[in-house]
Amino acid sequence: MTIEGDLRRARDLALAADEEAAHDLLVSLLPRIEQADRDDYAFEVFAQLGEIFLVRTAYDGVLESISRIRDTLAIYVAIRSGQRPDLAAETTMSDSEIDHMVCRYRRRVEFLDAGLAAARGDHDAAAVHLKALLEVGGDFDDLTVEHRHLTCHARILIASALCEDDLYAASVPVWAEVLADLDDRAAPGADALEADHLFVTAALAYGRFCVETGRLDEAQPWLRRAGARAEARGWRLARARSQLERAAGAWSAAEYADTQDLVTEAYPVIAEHSRAHEVSRSWLYFGLIRVGLGKLREADECWGYAERHWREIDRPLHLHRILLQRSWIALFRGMFDEAIAMVEEARALLDGSPRHSWLQYARLDAHLGNIWRADALAGMGFDGLGKPGQSWEEVEARHAAGSGTYNCRPGSRKYRRAMVKLARAVDLKVPAALAVDSVRYTITDAGARSRWARTVSAPMLAGAFAVAWESDDTELICELIEYHNARGTFSTESADTQVGEPAGDWAETATAVVPVEAELAPQLAVAAAAGPVEGPAAALTRLGPLPPLRMDPSSGPIMSRYRELARQRYGRDVTAPGGEWVTWP
Questions:
Q1: How many CA atoms lie within 13 A of 30 on its CB side?
Q2: Contact 216, 210 (CB under 8 A)
Q3: 538-585, pLDDT tens digit by residue?
Q4: CA 145 – CA 362 distance, rounded (Å)
Q5: CB 262 within 8 Å of CB 246
Q6: Are residues 435 and 361 in contact, defined by beta-carbon separation less than 8 angstroms?
Q7: Which one-letter DSSP state was computed for residue 457?
Q8: Whole-number Å distance between alpha carbons of 238 and 191
Q9: If we measure between CA atoms, which residue out of 212, 281, 217, 295 comes closest to residue 243?
Q10: How far is residue 297's CA from residue 460's CA, in Å, rounded to a whole number?
Q11: What is the distance, to the nearest Å, from the Cα of residue 263 to the centroid of all Cα atoms in its chain?
Q12: Are 250 and 292 in contact (CB under 8 A)?
């Protein structure tokens, strides 16, 4: 077969996710290319190798490929500018052929640079390389479709990387450009195989974005179309990835049987292709399902596998989430010190990551409050938690038989000790819930506001109410109710549990998926700053933080301490300036 034919075959192998075979074929071509003295073929080899290394997270290989292409391109640029007349006499290519080659592979290098910067979390550099890719000039009609393909693919990588760092709001305009680019995928002269690969890549990535931001209805068509097209092409890994993303959506929709079926079918193919990130995500869902079935030991083993793979590829944000997941198992076993240690390690990972947000810390504090709450309830005789020293079988049996009750005499020593721990839980959970809920009414879009309320605010507010109730703090309960009533009613929409599946609220142990959107969008400040409407209904129609609320003329504004803690910890001013609102008749 010709060198050109082998290059095409290597590309087809890479599109089918057989990167090892593609790599070996490309490397084997280098001696023949050197003998033929064809730098354009060498450029193609390194461009394809760079993309393979990028997919497989072998970033040193990407850098080496970029360097090889750039160094040789610089020579041809020097030839065309007249700086290397000694080499100009040796080349057999015409000026137009050199210009064509330089244009094409400068674009390929900028694509690799953009993808590498995005993968490393350097989102500003990725945007710079994308801009450079768009601006690489060259009036070559035969490269127009390839240029569109590279630009769209670079945007997919950039948007996906933003989502990996929980920067969902920043990814929204990039996704809009990706969807617009896909309209051109069937342009005249487009390679059908490349066009299908671009569509599948975009649909999988955008479908995942939709799942993680709560747009489940929008996600399904993209994921199903991606799976169908991948299956038609025989791309087994892409089809398996579509199943994994659909499983994530099924979990979010409380369709646990579908989650189990989809992940079980997808995992063998994902494992065969050694995709560490997808392998870890599969084990995450295996663990969640086993928690629902009460198989705590198996869940811990699943999450242990997920943690190991994420450590191998150094994903701090995913590591911090899986540590929170595993801390639930320690909590169920009554090993609260171990659970707290995991949360503190997760906090250190957040501290060490350049991409962290106040929301991540708020959710982490709320979970630490869960542990202190569980510790307090265990001391009061709560019947659903194990005890240190018990076997896995004993813990699972106790967990399954638990009715959610405890028996402790008010005023007893156990009761007093528990109240101290519950007070710590309150100080963690209530400020976090106030900070998160403050965002809800600054989101002007109704759909986005509903998603935030359903997936972020509601669980944290429910936890704040629960811990206030269990701490027997009647004053705090009344203040929370008053604060909540000032906001209006609050809906916690959820899908019904399917017949034959475990009942209960065990799905609340899922801390891995972070369906956030708009939390950092600058337009929120505009909505939050909006003044109240005039008239008697003004207090019920204001967006943004509430002003100080006074429900008793003989006391100060309610929840002032917790509002101040929210400001100190998360930088969220949940108290609007202005006069107090009086809440009594």
A1: 12
A2: yes
A3: 444 455 677 888 888 878 888 889 999 999 999 888 887 778 888 766
A4: 46
A5: yes
A6: no
A7: I
A8: 19
A9: 281
A10: 27
A11: 18
A12: no
Could you give the CA distance from residue 106 to residue 91 in angstroms, rounded to a whole number? 19
Backbone angles phi, psi at 65, to 5 degrees: -65, -45
Q: Which run of H or of E encompasses 414?
A: helix 413-440
pLDDT tens, 168-192? Answer: 888 999 999 999 988 644 555 568 8
Helices 336-352 and 316-332 cross at an angle (nearest 10°) of 170
Q: Which pair of structure tokens corresponds to residue 388? A: 């240190």
**Angle between helices 216-233 and 192-212 in degrees, nearest 10:** 150
3-class DSSP state of 550: strand
N residues, the chain: 585
Look-up of token digits 């509903």: 450
Residue 110: name the closest of 129, 96, 92, 93 by CA: 129
H or E segment at 581?
Answer: strand 581-582
d(CA 375, CA 170): 39
Whole-angstrom Cα distance, residue 229 to residue 204? 11
Which phi and psi (to 5°) does residue 309 adopt? -70, -40
Mean pLDDT throughout 362-388?
92
Burial of 539 (0-12, 13-18, 19+ CB in 10 A): middle
Q: What's the DSSP call for residue 405?
A: -
Residue reference for tokens 């209006």: 488
User: Helices 216-233 and 236-252, interaxial angle, to 10°?
Assistant: 160
Distances (CA, A) of 444 to 57, 425, 545, 584: 39, 32, 14, 29
C-alpha span between 82 and 77 (Å, rounded): 9
The two tokens of residue 332 are 């169920």
Instruction: Return the ∠ at Cα 111 (arms to 93 and 54), rounded to 5°.
Output: 110
Tokens of 146: 């390839």
**Residue 149 pLDDT:** 94
Please state, in angstroms and rounded to a whole number, the distance separating the CA atoms of residues 563 and 547: 11
Amino acid at 247: A
Instruction: Give the C-alpha separation, 332 to 526, whole Å.
Output: 44
